[in-house]
Amino acid sequence: MWDVVVVGAGPAGASAAYAAACTGRRVLLLEKADLPRYKTCGGGIIGPSRDALPPGFDLPLRDRVHAVTFSLNGKLTRTRRSKNMLFGLINRPEFDAQLVKTAQDAGAELRTGATVSRVEQHGSAVPDRRTVAVVLGDGEVVLARAVVGADGSASRIGAHVGVKMDQVDLGLEAEIPVPPTVAEDWAGRVLIDWGPIPGSYGWVFPKGDTLTVGVISARGEGAATKRYLDDFIGRLGLAGFEPDISSGHLTRCRAEDSPLSRGRVLVCGDAAGLLEPWTREGISFALRSGRLAGEWAARVAEANDAVDARRQALNYAFAIKAGLGVEMGVGRRMLTLFSRRPGMIHAALTGFRPAWHAFAKIVRGTTTLAEIVRTHPVARRALGTLDR
């Protein structure tokens, strides 16, 4: 009998396992793949991600970003620079594996190659109502007092909880090795291109001798998204370099009334649909929601009855909605504005110094988009006009 079983060893799951293990609970972390494993992700570590990492965590940075080049579908290109680092870039296999090692050092036990087929809270495999049965693909049953689902955007644990999504996007990405002369040109600088499909954008993130190049747009625009990526790579002059990896991934954003728990089961990260709707940034949301899920799962594990377990789960949901939920609400409004008027966003970031300073503060983690909208009259009026 485990106190807490965490399903999925990405940033959300590893953070949940670490937080629960730090309370002294017996924690099992299940992962279907062998580690390290590749994940479609730009790999940008902004301030909120850095601040949510375990104490003493040494970020395996591949580059430090001091400049951002913005373009509007390849046009009106302008570069903004900062004396201070804006954010860092990592390779997800290294980052994820290091987070898992931190959870193990805190006392969590890791099992890889463990595919979860379902969870049961009142089935034949459950000895009492304080227990959750995690049924693996080979039929093995793992028993726990609490379960955290962090098994990605196609989460089986999320399906058990009843997570509802109201925004699904397709991200396409290529890891392109480049010669030293090209790598040197990109060092310390990223590119963000506002794309031709409403709500879409592309990025170039340098990581030493490799450029991570990707685009994202709403699901249902698959052919147009693929054309955007091909055109994007072509006009960057990178079409002659063969990618090491080409991949795709669906990001899913939760509906505002979507549940975050069911009984003794909590969900976090992509499994809960927690990400910033405009930029689709998910690492900071995964780390922050994972930590909260691990802390509250430890309390759920202590609960002696369904009423107390429900109370702890509701406290977890309140903590998520009071923080990440507020940021997501503003992000939804920004996505609507950006989808309608990408040129206005581009003009603000490239030609209006306060907008650039706000961007820099957000990625450094000294403020949030929600805080800027709350405290700056111009930003508040702009979104208020959009709402009307």
Estimated radius of gyration:
21 Å
Helix content: 25-40%
Strand coverage percent = 25-35%
**Mean residue pLDDT:** 94
- DSSP summary, beta strand count: 18
Number of separate helices = 12
Structure, described:
The protein is an alpha/beta fold. It is 39% helix and 28% strand. The chain has twelve helices and 18 strands. It has helices spanning 11-22, 47-51, 92-105, 156-161, 180-186, 222-235, 283-302, 306-340, 342-351, 353-364, 369-375, 377-387, and strands at 2-7, 27-31, 44-45, 61-65, 67-72, 75-81, 87-90, 109-112, 116-120, 132-136, 141-149, 165-177, 189-194, 201-207, 210-218, 245-254, 261-262, 265-267. The strands form three sheets. Strands 1, 2, 8, 9, 10, 11, 17 and 18 form an eight-stranded mixed sheet that branches. A seven-stranded mixed sheet has the order 6-5-13-14-15-12-16, sandwiched between helices. The radius of gyration is 21 Å and the shape is globular. It starts with a strand and ends with a helix.
Topology:
Elements: E1 2-7, H1 11-22, E2 27-31, E3 44-45, H2 47-51, E4 61-65, E5 67-72, E6 75-81, E7 87-90, H3 92-105, E8 109-112, E9 116-120, E10 132-136, E11 141-149, H4 156-161, E12 165-177, H5 180-186, E13 189-194, E14 201-207, E15 210-218, H6 222-235, E16 245-254, E17 261-262, E18 265-267, H7 283-302, H8 306-340, H9 342-351, H10 353-364, H11 369-375, H12 377-387
Parallel strand pairs: 1-2, 1-11, 2-8, 5-13, 11-18
Antiparallel strand pairs: 3-7, 4-7, 5-6, 9-10, 10-11, 12-15, 12-16, 13-14, 14-15, 17-18
Helix pairs in contact: 1-3, 1-7, 7-8, 8-9, 9-10, 11-12
